[in-house]
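ARCHIVE CARD
Drawer: 12
Card no.: 0347
Subject: one protein chain, sequence and derived structure
Cross-reference: see card 0346
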Amino acid sequence: QDQLRESGGGSVQAGGSLRLSCVASGYFSTYCMAWFRQAPGKEREGVARICSRSLIRYAESVEGRFTISKDNDNTLNLQMTSLNVEDSGEYYCAADGQHIGTWQPIVPGDFRYWGQGTQVTVSS
């Protein structure tokens, strides 16, 4: 069964750090992988994307604080530092085999495979 499974969410105080991971299993391409987040009442927004091993794009709101990486073709990470309350939400891992140019925005429609999400709560 094709699936993506996130882990590492939790509660942290503002200024703290968390590391999210996502493991892919099944027969689908993970050439491009990304993290999205969704806060209650808000649209799902792209946080960071990596294609291949080094073609990376970040949302402006997390640039310099978050780091996306792949351990291998099946494991995606998101190191989050200097967290603030606005970073709270459900974080989703996504994957797809199509190449996405680094200049293109991080949008849900580019990804066919999704995880169930992991909750991140940042308190002030």
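Annotation on reverse: The CA atoms of residues 33 and 56 lie 10 Å apart. The longest strand covers residues 18-25.
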